[in-house]
């Protein structure tokens, strides 16, 4: 795809994805909270809230790091878009389906740590600073499961390109033949987008953490960038574990979109079901439980691939 | 300006983000704003368009509320809700443009004003505090740098912090912060002076209670000291208090929607809701999340009375001395461990027990009693939990610190009333 | 190469458009300039010092273990591509490599690198 077409594709994909994620979150909140499920109202709410934020000024603190504070949400959005760009919607329909697609995705998602830390640090205020450092601990802990299960998925495909991984699932989805992979990857995606039980840099115990000192357009930008990361992670889950564009009756891109939406529903449900995990507990669980499980997943995937290969 | 007003009309349909402060006598009304779908309380004033003060303000809370007012990005709105027939409150004099609302129409007033603000008709630009730079410029160079010592001078208006010893030998910087009376996860009025190294609190002390002198006492339980009160009324009030606490605690733990459900149950709990509370208790007991959040955090094993003492396994309850309760088959509920998780479980279990008692009590009354068991312990007696905070919180990571403070269900108004009223 | 170029253009587009959005927002609604409105939020009083400081990052031991695993990940990327060709032997070699690193996790666990309060 040409660069211009690629940009338009990411705009369309992210626009729809972010809007759907926000609307689903509102609906899930109402369903769990016991209020009326006003679907029309929930669909209009992201637009209303976005406009209400755009009409407000951007707050400042006494001596912020102005350039870094401006760059943090912008870089987060750019990285999320690059992550999404490495995922093909259908064979041949990809912005940047490079031969090392999961390396590109991993690199973009690794830099998310820097963007979120900068957002916390630049405000020159105690709570966002603590939140930024907390996110670094969280990022160092989910990074390994994120990369390892993708490597496990790459084993049967004999390639690091996301398109090849989707192709290798033509007969059987990775979610079934590598059962450890998808739950681990979902936890890593929740950590990556600091969402739900892993919303540690945004925690209420830090008065909002990284979003404690922002308002107006900056606040909208941060929220949208966070949802963009969530959408990119969900799209990767759908491609690598749920078979991407494979499926009967509907055209390939429709299946990709449907599977991404299904993963988004799952992630939104997790936000309203699970309590926020304290940082030390997450670090411990990640290193002592999740990473050994991810390593086990890699070797099981290898064994399965060897056994299934002709 | 047609585009702007059309966009503003669309935007006004979203809930108004408001920073809610609970003054004296306003705790429950402030919590009820979380249930109002047209108002969205925010975790920080920067995220808000309006400051809403519910209740009276004392001199102790006034400076903090004025600063919170200024931290809402201008143009801003400010409201104060007072019960009917209220005397003058210092807030209106100190904060320009605050609208005082009495009686029941707070939400409508806020919504109207917010719609006007978004359409550009607001003029709330004035600050409460004077526009003075925080620290005078000091130093030699053009940015305040230079002067004596390594970080001599006052760069950009505030000094840089210095180093302090730490328990693992690394001597790194220590931030001394006063996490103040209007910090949303803390109970209103609690101000902690914390010395933070990294995200661990090395040094904690509690500042003066700002409610001294203006607190409004909680009526239902105090009435039982003077006259006969129906048991059902006492127990329903107890259950409501615990459920409202649960709503707030779930919100701080990240489960906003479930917290709202608990809060709405707490606002209108009736004796017939015992089964719903039992379902809530069972759903909280499932899964490891709560155990990770609050297990082995903030352990208090002493017999402090109230739910905190009972969560540590001491079955002391003033209700077991009362014949009417014994006739209903009352036995104190206890948990083991005395950590924050035990306190969570204790309060939900006590709420369920209270509703069941209310159901079987019928018209039975009790009182006047010598000692009334309130939702936080026997009224007017027992050690102040506030005094235990410094020793309890030292060395905790910040998230655990907030979890512990939330699990103690502190009420600074009640503590101030107790300090002011002779025994 | 063309694909990577497209990815770079996507990154620059999104970063640039968010920066443009921020600049446009500032032009329409200028951020406040007064001193009290810029005090960092602590819940009551303002802070006494800057928050910028030599923050005590207590998880530095975990970060070192992470570095080791990061380098192992670098080796696993090309290994994943050639694994099926090379067969079982490649699996055993990687298993040996991983088990040495898992010793690092066990050491960190014992030494309390993953908890810090």
Please explain how this structure is put together.
- The complex is a heterotrimer of chains A (310), B (423) and C (117).
- With 310 residues, chain A is mostly helical.
- Chain A has one domain (3-308).
- Chain A is built from 11 helices and no strands.
- In chain A, helix 1 (3-33) runs parallel beside helix 10 (252-273) and helix 4 packs antiparallel against helix 5 (126-157).
- Chain B is of the alpha/beta class.
- Chain B folds into 2 domains: 2-118, Rossmann fold (3-Layer(aba) Sandwich), CATH 3.40.50.12280; 219-420, Cytochrome-c3 Hydrogenase, chain B (Orthogonal Bundle).
- Chain B has 16 helices and 14 strands.
- In chain B, the strands form 5 sheets. A 5-stranded parallel sheet of chain B has the order 2-1-3-4-5, with helices on both faces. In chain B, strands 8-9-10 form a 3-stranded antiparallel sheet.
- In chain B, helix 2 (27-32) links the parallel strand 1 (16-22) and strand 2 (39-41).
- Chain C is mainly α and 117 residues long.
- Chain C has one domain: NADH:ubiquinone/plastoquinone oxidoreductase, chain 3 (Methane Monooxygenase Hydroxylase, Chain G, domain 1).
- Chain C is 66% helix and 0% strand.
- Chain C has helices spanning 2-28, 60-86, 88-110.
- The longest helix of chain C has 27 residues, at 2-28.
- At the A-C interface, helix 1, helix 3, helix 4, helix 5 and helix 9 of A face helix 1, helix 2 and helix 3 of C.
